[in-house]
Protein: Amidohydrolase family protein
Amino acid sequence: MNRLLIKAGRLFNGDRASEVKENQYVVVSGNLIESVTDREPEGPFDQVLDFHDKTVLPGLIDAHTHLAFNGRESLFKLYLDPRDKLCFEAVDSVRKTLLSGVTTCRDVGGFNYLDVSLKKFIEQGILIGPRMFVSGKMITATGGHCYVIATEANGPAEMRAAVREQIKNGADMIKLMATGGGASPGQHLEAVQLELDEIRAAVEVAHSNFRRVGVHAHGAAGIKRVVEGGVDIVDHASLLDEDGAKMMADKGVFMVITPGHESMFPNLDPDWTRRMMPLRSRAAKTLEIARKHGVKICMGTDAGGNPYAPHGKISVCLEELVKTGMTPKEAIISVTSMAAECIGVQDRLGTIAPGKLADIAVFEGNPLSDITDIARVAAVIKDGKLIQG
Structure:
């Protein structure tokens, strides 16, 4: 079994109770972390990686991606493109994502189960990309958000059938669309598109099959309805209010905040600016409310989900998160240990600790003191194998 020694000038293990430690040594045996210590362990080692002047973190976890789409064009254009085009673009997208330090993605809606195929071929070693936890098709009401790529379902019976269909086709989790969204032209972002009995029916079937349920929801009314319906994760939660935050905290529901990449684009589409930028400008208030009530917060890039969401740019979203009020440490926790807990894989991912999978990202500088250093990826290790570095 291959044995690897990593020498870390600085190491943050991703645990909320931990701080950065200097001069640490990580031993990897096969695909698992064997030990983490401040004393150089004895060999022999098949490989030694010296990062004495760098910062070692757990592999980052992007809690909201759409890897089947290119992040440059509207979903309402892309769904008309040949499947072969989407496939070849996705090969590039998963590679860019992994090389940005993201070793795991919660992928929350693709095109005709392309996400399931990407996951399979990455696991088989045919493609280079992050480990993926996939939802299959999104489930929406007739004409609901992203209806052109989703499974449309109305009423509890159809919702149950739609959930079962996703599970049959390889979904690790379920994704519902409960309010309007920016990627669907003309929709009001606060429109509530699912009824309570529909949400409860979907959750019942998903939980019976050991799948978590995440839900797209922007508006406060939609957020409260889905939490009442028993979901596990609220994606975006852009207009979260005090009551909604208290409900989420009381029920242990995760929030996946999506700060956006708009700072990269000087010329935004006028309709996008009108409909979406008020949500972005409200991000600091949303984060303040969530933190006040103790909501569990993860971060997702929404990469691929709209024309302003490029792949491989998690650094931009983490910088935005710090601008809205998080410390660099809190931001990094939102894409490591907290994200692993959100997905339900905290027993094997999210921290650098003995027995965990050896997913590790290495950065120049120190992202815990200057979050912009998160863009300076020096090396990526996934499943104990050096991908870049």
